[in-house]
Design brief:
165 residues; two-stranded antiparallel sheet; 52% helix
């Protein structure tokens, strides 16, 4: 992943105004974050402007592993492909996740329990649970809750992109 920072000057020589026009960016839109995928697909980022939120976006869009706060590599491996797994495979992965829980210590235990909870809810409610839960957590982060609760919700948001097809 490479990044590019481009400024658009509103006065004088109006540097990079052509780029702003090409991509439909207006002065009132700044800051603007765009991901240009291989093949020319362009994805606009509209979320919270934090390192974790931007990393979550890239992890989801580019389908790459990036360990975010709250993510556990063993559990990410179990979550990867969980959405397309058949019921018996889901049950096997869930059992492995529960078996692994005894090895997890400290703050990571809460994350491990969240992975297990999501696996159970996907199995019960279907794949749409991930999208519904993501929207619910995003609303909570934007609401008037304590900073500690926001941190907990963001950690859960970091885990959800691990559940892929």
């Amino acid at each position: 992943v490479s990044t590019q920072s481009t400024w658009v000057q509103e006065y004088g020589d109006k540097l990079n105004e052509d780029l702003a026009e090409k991509y439909g960016v207006k002065n009132d839109d700044f800051p603007v974050y765009k991901l240009f995928k291989k093949g020319g697909e362009q994805v606009d980022y509209k979320g919270e402007i934090t390192a974790d939120a931007l990393t979550r976006f890239l992890k989801t869009e580019l389908k790459v592993y990036m360990g975010l706060p709250g993510c556990l590599e063993v559990y990410d491996g179990l979550a990867s492909g969980f959405l397309s797994a058949k019921a018996d495979e889901r049950a096997t992965r869930l059992q492995k996740a529960e078996d692994e829980l005894a090895k997890v210590k400290g703050a990571n235990a809460a994350s491990a329990k969240f992975y297990i909870s999501v696996m159970k809810k996907i199995s019960d409610k279907g794949n749409g649970f991930v999208t519904t839960e993501k929207k619910r957590l995003e609303k909570l982060v934007e609401s008037k809750i304590t900073d500690e609760k926001k941190k907990q919700m963001r950690t859960k948001l970091n885990v959800l992109p691990s559940f892929t097809e």
